[in-house]
Amino acid sequence: MPDISHLCTLNIIIMKLATKFIHAGATPDPSTGAIMTPIYQTSTYVQEAPGKNKGFEYARSQNPTRKALEEALAIIENGKFGLAFSSGVAATDAVIKLLGPGDEVICGNDMYGGTYRLFTKVFEKFGIKFHYVDMHSVDNISKYINSNTKLIWLETPTNPLMNICDIEAVSALAKKQNILVCVDNTFASPYLQNPLDLGADIVMHSVTKYLGGHSDVIQGCLVMNDADLREKLYFLQKSCGAVPGPMDCFLVLRGIKTLGVRMKAHCENGKIIANWLRNHPKVAKVYWPGFEDHPGYAIAKKQMRDFGGMISFELKNDSVEEAKRVLSSTHLFSLAESLGGVESLINHPASMTHASIPREERIKNGLSDSLIRLSVGIEDADDLIEDLKKAIG
């Protein structure tokens, strides 16, 4: 197993971001000198005697490639412990399994449809109650806190309306009540935002997105600082078995190395595209937290290093038919689910990523049937603008 002891968390934290992403969890293999962590494609490990092993027994519990990734994930989120899962939903599932019947969760009314589906269709029937609230203000959250509240689930920026939640303020409120705070940091990535530094207890990522970065892997992760919380979540990871394979872990280790340069390009292109869309005569509204008149701009500027490459917008011709025409007319922006890859994607939340949310709930929360979401890639910005210009007309 690669020895990364010299890359202690403290030393990594004080490194600049670009250096941290490249070196987190990466140490030459001691047996061969391989600079990349090997893919340990094995299901079990030979033991010297019953109970006497080299730290590994069975690959569902631990795998050396996964262990290296989990250490890297902890380092880039300024945490002590990382756990990798087979998907972002599997990571979310593990967090909710910390709870029991009668417990209550406060979460945003603008959230990823897969998370909403998991909460409403799977966990509600086990007696866990979820409150979906507008998280623009901490006061909105405090109204729902009671003795049964055990978890506050945040997305910021939110998917797909790009709302911003004040992680530090929410975490301070939760700590007074002994309530866990978990932040879905998928849209921001560790390049832009580190929720543990702002008081959150757990950070969740759909690693599939920016951490993988190349649309070639499905994975999720959790990062935390508390050792007891880590043991509880590790027990769930091991017992429920939603773990990633070593090849997937290898791909993410590779993806993390270029996270800094990719995110810089995503942010630069995102700013250009957002401003271009805002000045387009056929565009009615653009959702992007980098605008100074965005209601969450001040908080975003405080807790993020930049504003990212995720953008949503609505056309002045507010019809589903016109939106679908645009969605089907781009060439560089591929019509597809997901986000965060090097290539640009265009998405229709109402029929794709958020279709599991009832229409009346979507409309009530501001997610119109004609909303278009962009994941701005790292292509040349002029080419992306030309693609959108032709599609919008």
Structural account:
With 393 residues, the chain is an alpha/beta fold. The protein has two domains: 249 residues, Type I PLP-dependent aspartate aminotransferase-like (Major domain) (Aspartate Aminotransferase, domain 2), CATH 3.40.640; 134 residues, Aspartate Aminotransferase, domain 1 (Alpha-Beta Complex), CATH 3.90.1150.10. The chain contains 15 helices and twelve strands. The chain has a seven-stranded mixed β-sheet, sandwiched between helices. Strands 8-9-12-11-10 form a five-stranded mixed β-sheet. Helix 3 packs parallel to helix 10 and helix 4 crosses helix 5. The chain is globular and about 75 Å long.
Question: What is the mean pLDDT?
Answer: 93
CATH fold type of the largest domain: Aspartate Aminotransferase, domain 2
Give the CATH level 1 class of the largest domain: Alpha Beta
Helix content: 25-40%
CATH architecture group name of the largest domain: 3-Layer(aba) Sandwich
Order of helices and strands: HHHEHEHEHEHEHEEHHHEHEHEEHEH
The major pleated sheet works out as: 7 strands, mixed
Poorly predicted parts = 1-10
**What count of helical segments does DSSP give?**
15
Task: Give the strand order, joined by hyphens, for the main sheet.
Answer: 1-7-6-5-4-2-3
- How would the global form be characterised? globular
Gap between N and C termini, in Å?
56 Å
Give the name of the CATH superfamily of the largest domain.
Type I PLP-dependent aspartate aminotransferase-like (Major domain)
Strand content: 5-15%
Which class of secondary structure composition applies to the elements? Answer: alpha/beta
What is the strand tally? 12
